[in-house]
Amino acid sequence: MPRRAALTPEAAAVADSPLSATAGATGPVVVEDASRRAQSAAREGDLTALESLVAGVPVNLRNEEGNTLLMLAVYHGRHAVASMLLERGADPERANECGQTPLAAAAFKGDVESALLLMNAGAPVDGAGPDGRTPLMYAAMFDRLEVLEVLLQSGADRDRPDRGGQRPLTLARTMGARRTVERLERSFDA
User: Fold this and answer.
1) C-alpha angle 165-166-172 in degrees, rounded to nearest 5
2) Distance between CA atoms of 60 and 48, rounded to whole angstroms?
């Protein structure tokens, strides 16, 4: 018999919800299905489906990697879904198992709209994971100049080190991120 993945704490919390009575299935199976459908809807940007699903699953539901519905929506550039989740109370600071926040994901992807949406919802501009890496560091490393500009204008610390002592400019140089290196160098000349 195949081993079923363990329920996340959020999914386990809704095992006794009205979803568990549908189709005669046991609670955890239906909750897992609803969880998977919610995660898929967040990734695909299916706002209609997700709106009905979040009534039966926690808005901060996580998948096996610890990614919330909000993280999935941001990572896939689903702005309307991200906005709806934030309006329903999704935590803009909730990090995944790797310690990455939705704002770090927006910076990595170069998604200015998501970055602004998350900061307007309270995501700290210098919020960092256990490794000390901030959204500005991700924008710098992956040459996401437009997001880097937004983060700097929002007060991001351009000289904050990560846990290893690496600063955004050093990380950008290491990754060969030409545009963000030039921009960060100019910020120190000013």
Assistant:
1) 175
2) 18
68 forms beta bridges with 62
DSSP type of residue 13: H
Q: What is the DSSP string of 68-79?
A: BHHHHHHHTT-H
Give CA separation, 57 vs 11, 45, 91, 138, 175, in Å. 7, 17, 15, 31, 39
Burial 118-151 (b: 16+ CB within 10 A, else e): bbebebbbebbbeeebbbbbbbbbbbbbebbebb
pLDDT range class, residue 31, cuts 50, 70, 90: low
Q: What is the pLDDT of residues 130-146, one digit of tens each?
A: 999 999 999 999 999 99
Predicted TM-score of the model (pTM): 0.81
Q: Which two tokens stand for residue 132?
A: 């000390």
Rounded Cα distance between 76 and 13, Å, is 27
Q: Under 8 Å CB-to-CB from 182, ≥6 apart: which residues?
A: none
What are the residue ranges of CATH 1.25.40.20 in the chain?
A: 1-91, 95-190
In the chain, the amino acid numbered 169 is L
The fold adopted by the segment(s) 95-190 is 1.25.40
Question: How far apart are alpha carbons 141 and 172 in whole angstroms?
Answer: 4
> What CATH number is given for 1-91 in this structure?
1.25.40.20
CB 130 within 8 A of CB 163: yes
